[in-house]
Specification:
The protein is mainly alpha-helical. Helix content is about 65%, strand content about 0%.
């Protein structure tokens, strides 16, 4: 990939870092919301994973804006790193960030970082969600009953498709409309 279109510019690095830092701070509030909303999901705890996709947005949003290999992975890791000091999950958020970023990057990589249409963004959100689910299953839910794990998977994938994939599309387009993304595709 020595093609000039894959070369990183200073503005790419700044954009990726900005997305990562902003979402890292937002994760602090999302972590609190995750706990505050817990009682609303007592009827069926796996349903809470319908809001999980917010944690995956940096990977898809950064990829959608910058359109270079590694953009999503790095933004997701930066967000995880920034959220680390206040995360109840400790150092595991770093592995989560890497795994979630890799999930999205795989989809963009399959298109050679050329396709950023809605179906691809939704698929990248779903792939990031699936990667997050596998990680969480191994780290946190090893003894969970299979039907609960499947329900968690369904809700997290739906969240990845809509909250992450479509959410990144609409957020990216809204940012572009303001002019702050001039110089990006």
């Amino acid at each position: 990939m020595t093609d000039k279109k894959y070369a990183w510019r200073t503005r790419d690095i700044i954009m990726i870092a900005t997305i990562g830092v902003i979402f890292g701070y937002l994760f602090t509030f999302w972590n609190m919301l995750w706990e505050v909303l817990k009682p609303l999901f007592l009827f069926f705890p796996p349903a809470r994973h319908i809001i999980y996709g917010f944690w995956l947005i940096p990977a898809v949003l950064a990829s959608y804006i910058v359109r270079k290999p590694g953009a999503g992975l790095i933004a997701e890791f930066i967000a995880a790193f920034v959220s680390l000091p206040v995360s109840k999950w400790g150092l595991d958020v770093l592995s989560s960030g890497l795994i979630q970023g890799i999930g999205a990057e795989i989809i963009f990589g399959l298109t050679l970082w050329k396709n950023y249409k809605i179906p691809v963004l939704m698929l990248a959100g779903a792939a990031s969600a699936f990667a997050a689910w596998v990680h969480d299953w191994i780290m946190w839910y090893g003894g969970t009953e299979p039907h609960i794990l499947v329900a968690m998977l369904v809700f997290i994938i739906i969240s990845g498709i809509f909250l992450t994939g479509l959410g990144s599309k609409y957020l990216g387009d809204a940012l572009k409309a303001t002019g702050v993304l001039s110089g990006f595709p």
